Amino acid sequence: MEHISLKGKTILLTGAAGFIGAALAGRLMAQAEEGMCLVGVDNVNDYYDPSLKEYRLNRLEELSTMHPEVTWEFVRGSIADPELIRGLFDRYQFDIVVNLAAQAGVRYSITNPDAYIEANLIGFYHILEACRHSYDGIQDKGEKGKYQGVQHLVYASSSSVYGGNKKIPFSTDDRVDNPVSLYAATKKSNELLAHAYAKLYNIPCTGLRFFTVYGPAGRPDMAYFGFTDKLRAGDTIRIFNYGNCKRDFTYVDDIVEGVVRVMQGAPSRMAGEDGLPLPPYAVYNIGNSNPENLLDFVDILQQELVRAGVLPDDYDFEAHKELVPMQPGDVPITYADTSALERDYGFHPQTPLREGLRRFAEWYREFYL
Ligand SMILES: NC(=O)c1ccc[n+]([C@@H]2O[C@H](COP(=O)([O-])OP(=O)(O)OC[C@H]3O[C@@H](n4cnc5c(N)ncnc54)[C@H](O)[C@@H]3O)[C@@H](O)[C@H]2O)c1
After folding, report:
1. By the 8 A CB rule, do 41 and 57 touch?
2. Max alpha carbon distance in the chain (Å)?
3. Domain spanning 2-214+249-289+334-350: which CATH class is it, in words?
4. Does residue 224 surpass a pLDDT of 90?
5. Is 156 in the pocket of ligand 1 (CB under 6 A)?
């Protein structure tokens, strides 16, 4: 593995107004590596309330004023716009690219397939093409010496690629060619496209299969957030598969710590016996490796919402809970085998579920009440 120092690096972060992207940008600013230039891109679409994305962006602006060692630039635009992406690569000469921009969500892909093809396939393709062309000619980067092209492309895949995998925990050695949603199919396609580009153009690529990320300023389309909105409004929450669901919930700061570590260790470029490059390519699971029963999760969430004052002390939780069958595209369990990430990057999530949900509940009160 090649170690990459973040000092003085120019980094492209797509999906920077998103839940994980904004948290990652904040973490990178706080790390305050001298001379780091962080360029965020996001089209700030309205898949969920864009005011939440604006809130995250405003926080990043504030943070950037506190960390003058890091240059922060934000560009509003789509990764599916090839001219925009080419222009940014020409202008900034990125050393590291982190692609988190995507149309997320499993259920929405059933009713809005176009959005997934556009962002997850066409958008990712333009990122790969731009990485490929970053090696065209050696360019002088002034004080920074010669520009080497992109040294590491890190991109978001998803636990959903495991589909109905029966074997647990889910390992990156398991076959994942039976996606059960278009979203999962696009994420698996990203891994395949990245492999081909790694092989053809020697681009060091690492795909990360995220497992259900939750936390403050999270995504309102995700179950824990939707449950919170509904409980607060006095509506009934619907718990799928009669509650027989397990999810490997991962707190956002833990995920971000893992991504920052991965950014700094790229798969090595090596030649095979035929003299041609072996693809500098890796895929990891990134998650808690400790699945929680959905009913327990909801129970702790409800307790923390009461504690934070989002729900009243006498809230009748049982009266607002309905157990219903499984939904199309859903899977009964997600459980990450993260031993490879632990071995290669020393990544180990630290945040207990109750603590993570407490921080979410407190943020929710501050933001909405
Ligand atoms: N949150 C999770 O639990 C989870 C789980 C598995 C995988 N992921 C993946 O992690 C990544 C980040 O997820 P998130 O939870 O932060 O989601 P998010 O929706 O909050 O963030 C994605 C961001 O990408 C932006 N975007 C979408 N299409 C774009 C385009 N064409 N050009 C530029 N920007 C675009 C959106 O506006 C959004 O701000 C995504 O790739 C997602 O598929 C997330």
Report:
1. no
2. 71
3. alpha beta
4. yes
5. yes
